[in-house]
Amino acid sequence: MTWFLVIGGIGVVLLLVSLVGGDLLDGIDLGGDLFSGAALAGFLGAFGFAGALAAGASDSTGVGIVVGLVSGVVVGALVGYATARLRRGGDEATVRSADLPGQPGTVISAIPEGGLGEVSVVVAGHITKLNARAATALPSGTPVTVSAVLSPTSVMVQPRA
């Protein structure tokens, strides 16, 4: 049972080194994100501590090894999957002026007739605040659609039907 606790302790130490040292363990390519340093640490920790619990409860090292292996594989796979999902992250597309026409938005600062107001437009998950002109006066909160780009920071909008 002592060996199981030592293996579990090694897993915890590897996890701490991975957290404190950043990508220290992830620099070793073990086959992608599924086999990252965090996944290895999760496997070792779960194997050691679950194996120690099972071996202590059953007085059988064989049962401890089987329970430890199953627990380690499950936890390691879950950690590897979570690591892979986190690394993929979100859409990091840059918002370009060409993407703005046709996008829905909301007036956040009233647009006077012949003057500038402000609109909020969400493009590719990015909230963008822009100066705006409209053919008619539009109060705050009016849903609009971007009809044209006037400059990198200014657009022409029209009320949504």
Explain the overall architecture:
- This protein has three helices and five strands, in the order αααβββββ.
- It has 161 residues and is of the alpha+beta class.
- It folds into two domains: 87 residues, no CATH class; 63 residues, Nucleic acid-binding proteins (OB fold (Dihydrolipoamide Acetyltransferase, E2P)).
- A five-stranded mixed barrel has the order 1-2-3-5-4.
- Strand 2 and strand 3 form a beta hairpin.
- The model has no long low-confidence stretch (mean pLDDT 85).
Defining key terms:
single chain; 161 residues; alpha+beta; OB fold (Dihydrolipoamide Acetyltransferase, E2P); 5-stranded mixed barrel; rod-shaped; NfeD-like C-terminal domain-containing protein; NA-bd_OB-fold
**Rg from C-alpha positions?**
28 Å
Per the principal axes of the C-alpha atoms, what is the gross shape?
rod-shaped
Q: Major beta sheet, specifics? A: 5 strands, mixed, barrel
Mean pLDDT: 85
Concise synopsis of the structure shown:
It is built from three helices and five strands, in the order H-H-H-E-E-E-E-E. The chain has 161 residues and is α+β, with helices and mostly antiparallel strands.
